Amino acid sequence: MVKKKSNIRIASVVLALLLIFIANSFNVSYAQGSGVVINEVESNNPNSNDWVELYNNSTDNVDISGWILSDDKGLARLNDETTKPFPAGTIINAGEFLVFDVDAVPYKFALGKKDAVNLYDKDKKLVDSIAYTDHAPDTLGRYPDGTGNFVDTISTKGVANRINEESEEPAGDEYIETTLRINEIETKHDVFKDYVEIINIGDQQVDISGWYVMDNDPAGHATEYTPVAAGTMIEPGQVYVFDTGSHFDFGIGKDDLVTLRNPDGHIADEYSWTDHPKGTWSRVPDGTGEFRDYPNS
To answer: pTM above 0.70?
Structure first.
């Protein structure tokens, strides 16, 4: 995906929204970007199986027959039969949850301390992914459900996620709600140098003065980024690109994380992965879709 001018991006967003409108005229969705996401992960409860909760963030029921769950071994789990496609007739209703115990029959893998959860559609294309470097104190979940970033959550298997009620905020980094989304990430610097593209999916301009991007080592790379210049605005539908050399001097790695941060260091969006893509990690459609391995062009 070549970095494009904002007017081209706006046109692509409009076209993508039109396609979504057409797809949503059906009762059950089968396409990628259908709104089904990984929502909560249990990896270290001695009194229960490891499990993964999915959530349908769309307004349609979604047929996920043939979809596949795996850990950091990815589709190799199919070859050794430690994971199996979801059976025919597996449907997750709009706004509902579906839980899979991944270390019990018919699955035979457990989630480790440093691991990942990958969700693939029936065509073996990556739909959603979460990588982590340590067990959560309880569970790791999106807050709010379906749209939020992953934070430490209280185990709520099959129901809405909750954070620690004794604290007003999730443990660790503080997250904020904005209309800015990470939209594309170049990690291999083979066609381009590493870059991070963001997009404004809202209907109002956003002042990104002082904003910056960071990898999985914010302490070690605290002096290796340059905040966005004062007075920089990003219009609705417009993209902005953080480039190596201009905005950051660290490399984006094979097993890494990118966060988008405001001047106070609060996280507006993030994405993590466990391997380089063949092209770039890109949201399809722009701004609203799940991340895909999208070919460079």
So the answer is: no
